[in-house]
Write a structure and sequence with these properties.
Layout (H helix, E strand, L loop, with lengths): L2 E5 L7 E2 L15 E7 L2 E7 H13 L1 E4 L5 H5 L10 E4 L4 E4 L2 E2 L1 H14 L3 H11 L5 E7 L3 E6 L6 H12 L3 E6 L2 E6 L4 H12 L3 E5 L6 H6 L2 E4 L4 H5 L6 E3 L5 H16 L3
Parallel strand pairs: 1-5, 1-13, 13-14, 14-15
Antiparallel strand pairs: 2-4, 3-4, 6-7, 7-8, 9-10, 10-12, 11-12
Helix pairs in contact: 1-9
Length: 270
């Protein structure tokens, strides 16, 4: 029976320059590998050791990148190792099989959203009138499934985030603040549902998971074992659960540790 490894990407396995958290002396900093270029500029990194571990993991388990990114944003990432057969994008809204959207899965997701939460247009309209241009840099709609803002984090009022979260909760939506992006995502749109579908298709009898944000909580709970880094929304709130390991490492070294844990668990006798 195969092992399924479902992992968030940003600030879990890959890191922007701002999120690397290289607190050691410069001479002791790890060598980095660029895994994403955007508009001709390097954008995301992992350590060279993590890259080697991910390559090994691709041979030991079914590795499934599991991200809130859109398909277009995901496809500019160039991960080391064999290309994953399955990938989950748009927080579970798109299941890619050999890089192509599974249209039947997407139809099932959109049908569920239509019946279980307020429409995207209502959330979009609320953000248009309530989010202050003083701290909003961009309004974005992702895959016609959810909305997010690119914000100036230091200017973003904490009270506004809390009020918006309550407003969204009452309409069946979740709010998550990750770096400079504030997401509003329908509650029925989950990474865990897509991961369970991949587990069903592959016949996996063990699912391992990792993630750092509120949107990853359901993913971690869906796994048999899970890991979260020492940074991010989940760490900041002290979130934990049975079978979830809270790691002390922060930044890019947390990604390396997570891949080590994945590899050890994948190779352990069952």
């Amino acid at each position: 029976m195969p092992v399924l490894v479902a992992s968030d990407l940003d600030r879990t396995l890959i890191y922007s320059a701002a999120a690397l958290a290289l607190t050691m002396p410069d001479a002791r900093a790890p060598r980095l590998l660029c895994v994403e270029v955007h508009e001709s500029r390097p954008l995301s990194y992992m350590t060279e050791t993590a890259a080697q571990l991910l390559t090994e993991l691709g041979d030991a388990a079914v590795f499934v990148p599991t991200t809130t990114r859109t398909r277009k944003q995901y496809q500019r990432i160039n991960l080391p190792g064999p290309p994953p057969k399955y990938a989950i994008c748009a927080n579970g809204g798109h299941l890619l099989v050999d890089g192509v959207t599974d249209t039947e899965w997407h139809a099932r997701v959109t049908e569920r959203l239509a019946g279980e939460c307020a429409p995207l247009a209502e959330v979009q309209a609320h953000l248009a009138v309530s989010a202050d241009p003083l701290w909003v840099r961009k309004h974005r709609i992702a895959e016609d499934l959810f909305a997010y803002l690119v914000v100036e984090r230091e200017l973003l009022p904490e009270d506004w985030v809390k009020e918006f979260a309550v407003w969204a909760e009452n309409r069946g939506w979740t709010v998550s603040l990750q770096g400079r992006k504030l997401y509003a995502v329908p509650k029925p749109l989950t990474k865990s549902a897509a991961v369970r579908e991949v587990a069903r298709r592959t016949g996996a009898d063990l699912t391992l998971a990792a993630g750092d944000s509120l949107l990853d909580a359901d993913l971690l709970l869906a796994g048999d074992r899970g890991w979260r880094p020492g940074h991010g929304e989940l760490a900041d709130s002290g979130w934990t659960a049975p079978a979830i390991s809270a790691l002390p490492e922060r930044g890019v070294l947390a990604g390396e540790r997570i891949l080590n844990e994945f590899l050890k668990a994948s190779r352990a006798p069952r």
